[in-house]
Every structure is written in structure tokens, then in C-alpha cells.
Amino acid sequence: MAVRELSALEAALAPPRAYGAPAARGRLRCEPEDFLVEEELGFAPAGDGPHVLLKIRKRNANTQWVARELARLCGCRPADVGYAGLKDRHAVAVQWYSLPRPRSSCDWLGLRAADFEVLEAHPHTRKLPRGALAGNRFAVRVRIQEGDATELAARLAPRLAAIEERGVPNYFGSQRFGRGGSNLQRLGRPAKRLAPQQRAFALSAARSVIFNALLAARVTDGTWERLQVGDMANLDGRGSIFPIGTVDEVLTERCSRLEIHPTGPLWGDGDPASTAQVLELETLIAARYPDAAAACVAAGMAQERRALRLAVRELRCEIESQSVRIHFRLTRGGFATAMLAELIETHSEESST
Asked: Residue 1: what pLDDT?
């Protein structure tokens, strides 16, 4: 089967949908309260230790700005502030941070600024590492462009049911690539000329564009949700992977129940762990993005895997006066934009960062 070659920008910003045309149209992010996200920690605070975990609500502020403000207010280095992941700026996000506990007592619950406030504070044993989440809960308002909220909810209902049953392609969202794909444009520059943060964003975009392009090919041929001989399978919501030598009824049934998923490569040095025709396809796709692949290898990244499919849990639609609110939960690393792209044709009042 011939695989259509996508440009890097297509793979990053406009990969093919699995379900065809969206079920409806609407507007997103008219105000920060239209996009609510709350992190779920993958563990309980220790209750003692040299660090403190802070549960913070931020509005219209990016994660790294809040981290710098916390460092300034608490008198520590910005590098000492931990957070599990980046969250959208044009949103209301409840997010966890960690700080070294100061020697003098601090009124953590009284710590606030114009764009954030501390909701909880817990002693903890260590700095919060990246990725230390079980998942994220979302509540996304879709404002009506035509008709009324009840009609919009009725149009969305069949697609919501299909997404809950089958999941969605686990694409990296457009925010991974920067405004207009700006992070990809940095790949052509020598790494020494990039600031550390710019280099990190460029490398992340490099891996992500290869993954999105591979996933796009498997969406096109219909195998994004089906195991193939040569796949590496992933346990839902976990990092465990295992090879697929044969596709039997048990594996097929587990896959249909969203318990396991096929995976794609997060590019790095060496060959992907897949075999047979799956490996051939992954190698072919990576060869189409030589700058991205070379950047990952030069940075010493190892070959890793990411699920091709994203299960969408606790999915429901709430009718409001001039909008609907879509509630759902995703495992860590999943992008809300991946689900929303399969559901609605949207216009965002402001792009996320």
C-alpha cells in the first residue's frame, strides 16, 4: 500500500482524522474559563520531607511563568521548582508544583498572585518529576455557531459514543510544535546556536512530528486501533510494552476493550523495537523527515514507544444556555486537542502555548 507523504507542517498541525468530518462546529477558548483542566497525581503526598507539594489553580498563565513566580516568592532557584507537565496558558488549570521547604515557616495557603492561587500544600520527600501524573480531567466549553445547545448536543451524541467505545488517534497536539510550527523551523539551525529551552522544544517537536506522521499513515490504512504482527503493544495508561508475534483472539478482544494499544516510535538512536512490516513502515516514515530524525539521534535520545490510540474515559456532554460543555479524562501524555479534532470543527479565539 502506498503511503501518502505529509509535509512536516501537515503531520504536526493537520493530520488526518479517524472518524471523517467533524460532527458539528463550534468556538473554543473565547475566555480562559472555557477550557478547564485538572491534573491527577499518580501518588499520594508523603506527608513529610524536605519539599512541599502545592496544588495551584492558575488562570491565563503558562506553567513556566508560575514556576518562576513561585521561585521568586519563596526565595529559591527556578530550577528547584518541580512540575509534572506543561499546561495551556489560555485556560484555567489546576496543577501540582513542588518547592524546597524553607527553614522558616511559610503561609502556603496565603501564597497567591494575580494569575494563580495555592489550593493545597503537603510536605513531600522529593522534587516533583516530569510525567508524575495518572491523568488529566478536562471540561471544555464549545460555544454555538448555529442552532441551539440541544441541537448541538444531539449532533455530537453519536460521535461521542463512538469515541468512548474506540478511542481516538493519540496525536501530539499543535502546541507541541509552537505557533505555526515554529519549533520545527528551529531544526535546521545548529544546536549550539539555540538557547537550552529552544533546543528542548525543537527536539520534542522532532520526535513528535515523526510519531504524528507514522500515526497518520496508520489512520489512513485503518490500523491505528488494530494490532499487527510486528507491533509493540502498550498496556493502557502504563509504560509497559510487549511484542506482537501473532494476533490471536485474546489479543484482539483486549485491544477492542481498550486494554492494550499498538504503539509508534518516539525516534532516537538505533532501530525501533518493532519488526516485520511495522518496522518497514516506521523506517520509511522517519526517512521522510531527515532533519527531525538526525536531531533526535544527535541528541543521544533512545528509541521509545507511545500508544497510537488514546482512550477517552468518563466522557459526557453537558448542555448550557448557549454552549455545551464536554467532560472527559485522559491518561498522562494525551492531548485534549486530539479528541476535540475528531468531534468538532472549531475556531479558537486564541492559540494555546
From this structure: 54
